[in-house]
Amino acid sequence: MNRLRYFYRILVLCWRKPGLMRRRRHNHKRRKHVFKRLKKRDEERVYRAQYKKRTLGRHVLPTYLKENKWEGELNFKLWSTKGARFQAARRCEDKANSSLWICALLTSYLIILSLIPFVPYPLFKTIPAD
């Protein structure tokens, strides 16, 4: 009987004050979101602790820096960034080609516009040469 009375009170409350229930639902959603974030943060903290344990005994420096040879370091950096440099060169070539084509089209457009008054067509005769 108490449950029935409880649900009846909730129905009456929803009918009389819908904003109150809306606020309760909103608060419940916010709490769920906060708990999700806290759970994710705890998982990240555990993962960081595991990672620290795994990398504790290892050397942080790469092998080319341990020997302290600048040739090895330069060679490693050149070979590891080779692909990125090729992609950058290709992008620069594409940009140069497109700008060359745009300049050529604009130049031809200006030349054609300057020759329109000299075309023997009646519509173009009305355009002054200057």
Q: How would you portray this structure in words?
A:
This protein is flat. With 130 residues, the protein is mostly helical. It has helices at residues 2-16, 18-55, 63-66, 70-80, 82-115, 122-125.
Helical content class: over 70%
What's the overall geometry? flat
Straight-line distance between termini: 99 Å
**Largest sheet, strands/sense/barrel:** none
Structural class: mainly alpha
Uncertain runs are none
List the helices and strands and how they pair.
Blueprint: H1 2-16, H2 18-55, H3 63-66, H4 70-80, H5 82-115, H6 122-125
Helix pairs in contact: 1-2
Briefly say what this structure is.
This protein is mainly alpha-helical and 130 residues long. α1 packs across α2.
Question: Can you give keywords for this protein?
Answer:
82% helix, 6 helices, 130 residues, mainly alpha, flat
